[in-house]
C-alpha cells in the first residue's frame, strides 16, 4: 500500500479541541464506510510519527475527511488539530480495514454505539446511509463527556430527521454548556431502547476507548445478540 500526498483544502472546527480536515488526495482508490487511514508526519530532522485515523467522509465523496481530537501530550494530533493549514500536505495510506464496515446493500437494521471520537467511523456510516437513501433502519447511540465535546452536533440532528435514521446522544459529565438531552452511560436499558431484539439479527458496531467498547459489547452479547453481529473497533490514548 503506497503512501499518498494529501493536500489540505479546508479545516473545520468541530469543538474546542477537535477539527475536521478536508483533503484532496490524488489517486485515492475509494473507501468503504468505517475504514481508516494511516497518517505519517516527518520532522525536519527526519524523525517520523505515524497514527491511524478513521475516515469521516462517506464513500464516493470528492474529498477525504478526517476528524482529529487534539491530545495535549500527543505527537501527531496537536499538529493536525492546531497547526495544519490550507495548502499544507501530509502523507497518508489507505484505506485500511475490511471488517468494521457497513455496505448499503445490506438491509438489516444497524445499531451504532460510539464513545468520544469513536463516533467518527459511525458518522461515516450514517453519512453513507443518507447519501444513498438507504431504507435500512440505523440508530446511533453516542456517548460524550459534555455538550461541548459532541462532534457533528448540528449535522447529527439533521441526519436524524428521517424515518430510517435515529440519533441518541448521552452525556457522562456535567460540563458548562446547557443540555436538556439524555445523561448517563450507555447501558442495557439504553441499548434495548435504541436497538433491536436478537431475533431480528441487527448489525452492531461499537467504537471508542477500550473500556467503553468492552462494556458495550459485553452488554449486547448478554442481551442475546450474536457475537458475530457485534463488530468492535478500539482506540487508546496513544492514538494522538
Structure description:
The structure is a single chain. This protein has helices at 77-83, 119-132, 153-159, 188-194, 210-222, and strands at 4-13, 18-24, 36-42, 48-54, 64-69, 89-96, 110-115, 138-144, 165-171, 182-183, 203-209, 230-235. The chain is an alpha/beta fold. The strands form two sheets. Strands 4-3-6-1-2-5 form a six-stranded antiparallel beta sheet. Strands 10-9-8-7-11-12 form a six-stranded parallel beta sheet, with helices on both faces. Strand 3 and strand 4 form a beta hairpin. It is globular. 37% of the residues are buried.
Write the layout of secondary structure elements.
Layout: E1 4-13, E2 18-24, E3 36-42, E4 48-54, E5 64-69, H1 77-83, E6 89-96, E7 110-115, H2 119-132, E8 138-144, H3 153-159, E9 165-171, E10 182-183, H4 188-194, E11 203-209, H5 210-222, E12 230-235
Pick out its properties.
5 helices, 6-stranded parallel beta sheet, alpha/beta, 240 residues, globular, single chain
Largest sheet: 6 strands, antiparallel
Spans of at least 5 consecutive residues whose pLDDT stays below 50 are none
Radius of gyration: 18 Å
Query: Helicity range of the residues?
Result: 10-25%
The run of helices and strands is EEEEEHEEHEHEEHEHE
Mean pLDDT, to the nearest integer, reads 93
Largest beta sheet: strand ordering: 4-3-6-1-2-5
Oligomeric grouping of the chains:
single chain
Put simply, the count of helices is: 5
Strand content: 25-35%
Could you tell me how far the N terminus lies from the C terminus, measured between alpha carbons in angstroms? 22 Å
Question: What overall geometry do the principal axes of the alpha carbons give?
Answer: globular
Instruction: Indicate the structural class.
Output: alpha/beta
Total number of beta strands: 12
